[in-house]
């Protein structure tokens, strides 16, 4: 039997984690194990109750920014050491649709040299009764900027800029070929686009699975994300060094309009900082 592990990195958002675990337990084919990486968060252990079977891993923080890339790698190592063959990475904000685990597992087994993503719906704030965890399909409205195959369909696509780390799955051999996430990325932005480039460099394909639907729980955001200005510029500079171009150019252009950054040679430098409204 192919062993499947879900890997979730957690720093705060404990109620979101609890809801996610409820949806994993409701899955038509639940995961064999949920690897929860507590990233500089000593309170995670107290909120983990009930199924699915859980492996809690603790990861240290970093004063420069949350080491999300390193935390994902740690979670993968833990899952592989326990015998997992299919790795499903699911952001803590994402609720799992009932067919997500089975859809990913089938796609990964059918094409283990491809990394699979699933459609994500961004949800409005939960009402007094919370989200309908047993009827998430009633909220289905996948993000329009990404492929969204219907259940039962798979789409093969090669654009690494369409990859996102909210929800994806791959075989253990593909993970080992990829080299994992580059741990030089700290804080918000860039590490998932870098990872997609690494996948392509390793000869791994990309694709989308219609059954692997997830639902992103609402939380406040700023557009552009001025609270992550330092992370975006620092991580963008690292990406430029590795791949010859800047990522997140839309956000950088918005920051420039706000007077927060300016062009410097072939890059960007911070000129001011803004307090999120």
From TrEMBL:
Keywords: Glycosyltransferase, Transferase. Gene3D superfamilies: Spore Coat Polysaccharide Biosynthesis Protein SpsA, Chain A. Pathway: Cell wall biogenesis; cell wall polysaccharide biosynthesis. The keyword Transferase applies. Residues 166-216 form the Galactosyltransferase C-terminal domain. InterPro entries: Galactosyl_T_C, Nucleotide-diphossugar_trans. SUPFAM superfamilies: Nucleotide-diphospho-sugar transferases (SSF53448). Pfam families: Glyco_transf_7C. PANTHER family: GALACTOFURANOSYLTRANSFERASE GLFT2, RHAMNOSYLTRANSFERASE WBBL. Belongs to the glycosyltransferase 2 family. This is Glycosyltransferase. It comes from Nocardioides dubius.
